[in-house]
Specification:
This protein is 67% helix and 17% strand. The protein contains six helices and five strands; from the N terminus they run αβαββαβααβα. Helix 4 runs antiparallel to helix 5. It is elongated, with a radius of gyration of 40 Å. It starts with a helix and ends with a helix. The chain crosses the membrane at residues 262-283. This is DUF4349 domain-containing protein.
Length: 288
C-alpha cells in the first residue's frame, strides 16, 4: 500500500511543478510584454530622433562656404569655344589662375587640341557663369561636379585662437615695460615672438579661407573632337543608340587609320616587294 501511494505521488509531482510554473509565467508575461513595448518605444524614439538630427545636420550649413566646380566640355570649333570662354570671363570679372594647352600633332589621332583652365570668379557669379557655358551651342557638357565645403567651424576656431593670442601678446608687451632681470626680459621676448608667429599663422589661414569663400574656383577642361555631342545616356534605349553610333564611328575611324598607316608604310612595302622579287629570281637560278 505504501509503495502504491509512493508511486502515485511520484507520478503527480511533475504535474504539480508544471502547473505552478505555468501560473507564474502567466503572471509575469504581461509585465515582460509591457517592458518590451517600453523598450521598443524608447529605441524607436531614439532612432527617429537620430534620423531627424541627421537631416537637420545636412541642412545646417554655416556662413563660411567654399564652392568649387569641375567642368568638362567637348567641342568641334575649339578656337571659337575658347574665345567665348575668355569673353565670359571678362564679363563675369573672372581671372585665370592656371592655364595649360596641348596640341596633338601625331598623325592619325582622333582628338586635337585640349585646354585646362583654373578660373577664379566671385562666388555669386558661379551659377550664372556655368549656365552661360551650358547654353553655348558649340560646347557640349560631358561632366559637371559642383562641390561645397563648410569651413565655418575651422574659421571660428581660428578667430578664438587669434583673440586669445592677442590678449597674451598684449600682456607680454606690458610685462616688457616693467623693470626686470635680463633673463626675464629674454624669456618674455622669446615667448612674445612665438605668440606673434602663431597668431600670424591662424590669420593667414583665415585670410586664405576668405579668399576661397569670396572667389569660387572652376576647373575647366575643353577637348577638341570631330564628334562632339551632348548625348543622353539616362535610359537603356538611349545608351543602345549611342553604342551603335559609337561602334560605327569607331569602325570608320579604324579604317581611316589603317589607310593612313598603309600610306606611311608604302615606301617600305615597295622595298620589300623589290627584295622579294630579287630573292625569288636568285632562288630559281640556283635551282637550275
Amino acid at each position: 500500500m505504501n509503495n502504491r501511494q509512493t508511486l502515485i505521488f511520484t507520478l503527480f509531482l511533475p504535474f504539480l511543478f508544471l502547473i505552478t510554473a505555468c501560473s507564474s509565467q502567466e503572471r509575469t508575461a504581461p509585465m515582460d510584454m509591457n517592458s518590451e513595448n517600453m523598450t521598443t518605444e524608447e529605441f524607436v524614439s531614439e532612432d527617429e530622433a537620430s534620423v531627424e538630427d541627421a537631416k537637420n545636420a545636412d541642412l545646417d550649413l554655416g556662413d563660411k562656404i567654399i564652392r568649387t566646380a569641375s567642368l568638362t566640355y567637348e567641342t568641334i570649333a575649339f578656337d571659337e569655344a575658347v574665345n567665348f570662354v575668355h569673353k565670359q570671363m571678362d564679363e563675369f570679372q573672372a581671372q585665370i589662375e592656371h592655364s595649360s594647352q596641348t596640341t596633338n600633332t601625331k598623325y592619325g589621332q582622333e582628338n586635337g587640341e585640349f585646354i585646362q583652365l583654373t578660373i577664379r570668379l566671385p562666388q555669386d557669379q558661379l551659377d550664372a557663369f556655368i549656365e552661360r557655358l551650358d547654353n553655348y551651342e558649340s560646347l557640349y557638357a560631358q561632366s559637371q561636379e559642383i562641390g561645397r565645403s563648410d569651413v565655418t567651424k575651422a574659421y571660428r576656431d581660428n578667430e578664438t585662437r587669434i583673440n586669445v593670442l592677442k590678449e597674451e601678446e598684449t600682456a607680454l608687451r606690458d610685462m616688457l615695460q616693467e623693470q626686470g632681470s635680463l633673463e626675464e626680459i629674454l624669456q618674455i621676448r622669446t615667448r612674445l615672438s612665438e605668440v606673434i608667429s602663431e597668431r600670424e599663422i591662424y590669420e593667414d589661414e583665415n585670410q586664405n579661407y576668405e579668399e576661397q569663400i569670396d572667389f569660387s574656383t572652376i576647373y575647366l577642361s575643353i577637348q577638341q573632337t570631330d564628334r562632339a555631342s551632348d548625348r543622353d545616356v539616362s535610359g537603356f534605349w538611349n545608351r543602345l543608340v549611342n553604342a551603335f553610333g559609337d561602334s560605327f564611328y569607331r569602325f570608320v575611324h579604324v579604317m581611316q587609320q589603317v589607310l593612313i598607316n598603309l600610306v606611311y608604310l608604302f615606301p617600305y612595302l615597295v622595298i620589300l616587294v623589290v627584295v622579294g622579287i630579287l630573292v625569288y629570281f636568285v632562288w630559281r637560278r640556283i635551282r637550275r
